[in-house]
Design a protein that fits this description.
elongated; disordered N terminus; about 300 residues; four-stranded antiparallel beta sheet; alpha+beta
């Protein structure tokens, strides 16, 4: 007599352990949080220290994309900035003569003031000295304003060029291939000497220190599972045995779906199941795509 046991992944799983039959509550396959890293700069890949299976840390430098043209463009812009700013007037030097005149006028003003007190000079001479000091001060203020406007205008003229240099600095930094994710390289898409383009995939990486089991539960089993619940995950081992791991349910789908197409019978493919993600620590044995069973 045949007995069909519908499990969450839609698989008929019967495992023999010490002569006893063990039936799982669900099954599925492992998956990881995969990240496809793409180039952020265009050019020839000068060097690339990257191999599939390599463990990477965030911040590791993997290689470099040719950036000679960017560097030359940056030098050109810096030369233009220097040429523009080189036209700025030397305000202290150009005001030095006026300040010397003011110094002399103030000295003359003080001398005449003393003479007037001693009745050795007329008040008109002192008034003329006051007027001379005021005129020179106005000339200094006017010259400072004029030179300041010229300097400000040249600074504003250089600002767009400075912004372009900052853009080039950003592009130059992106020419260095620096890994941003801790994990294992799953797939390598390019080799040194190939041309890179912005957005072109370079490699795929995933953090396998923790791994996700996507399992499927029937609607009847939903009342037996909840977020944060600990479950046993069983993985095939040698001689028909299982390796047992402890996992935690971190996501349960709110939408039903058909069982995976790998189910052979039409009747079982017609059944609806709910997907769930079970997170567990990986001791290095678990791989993406491996099958596993779940025991509640």
């Amino acid at each position: 007599m045949k007995t069909f046991l519908l499990v969450s992944a839609g698989f008929l799983l019967l495992a023999s352990c010490n002569g006893k039959k063990t039936v799982s509550d669900a099954s599925g396959t492992f998956e990881g949080l995969e990240t496809i890293v793409s180039a952020e700069a265009a050019g020839r890949i000068n060097n690339l220290n990257l191999e599939e299976g390599q463990l990477l840390k965030a911040g590791d430098t993997l290689g470099h994309i040719d950036s000679v043209q960017l560097y030359l463009k940056k030098k050109q812009l810096q030369a233009q900035i220097n040429a523009v700013l080189g036209k700025k007037p030397d305000i202290p030097a150009q005001l030095a003569a006026y300040r010397e005149q003011l110094k002399q006028a103030l000295h003359e003003q003080e001398r005449l003031s003393n003479l007037v007190k001693a009745d050795a000079a007329t008040p008109k001479q002192l008034d003329d000295a006051h007027a001379q000091v005021a005129i020179i001060r106005k000339q200094i203020a006017a010259q400072e304003s004029s030179l300041g406007i010229i300097s400000s205008g040249l600074n504003k003229e250089a600002m767009p060029l400075t912004a372009q240099v900052e853009q080039l600095n950003d592009q130059l930094s992106k020419s260095n291939l620096i890994n941003q994710v801790n994990g294992t390289v799953l797939t390598k898409y390019v080799e040194a000497g190939e041309m890179a383009a912005v957005g072109k995939p370079l490699y795929k990486i995933a953090d396998l220190s923790t791994i996700i089991l996507r399992a499927y539960f029937t609607s009847n089993q939903l009342s037996s599972i909840k977020l944060g619940q600990k479950v046993k995950v069983l993985v095939d081992a040698a001689e028909g045995q299982y390796k047992t791991y402890e996992g935690v349910i971190e996501w349960i789908s709110a939408k039903a779906e058909f069982t995976p197409k790998t189910i052979q019978t039409k009747e079982e493919r017609a059944n609806l199941v709910y997907a769930a993600k079970i997170k567990l620590k990986n001791d290095g044995y678990l791989k993406i795509g491996m099958y596993a069973e779940v025991s509640l």
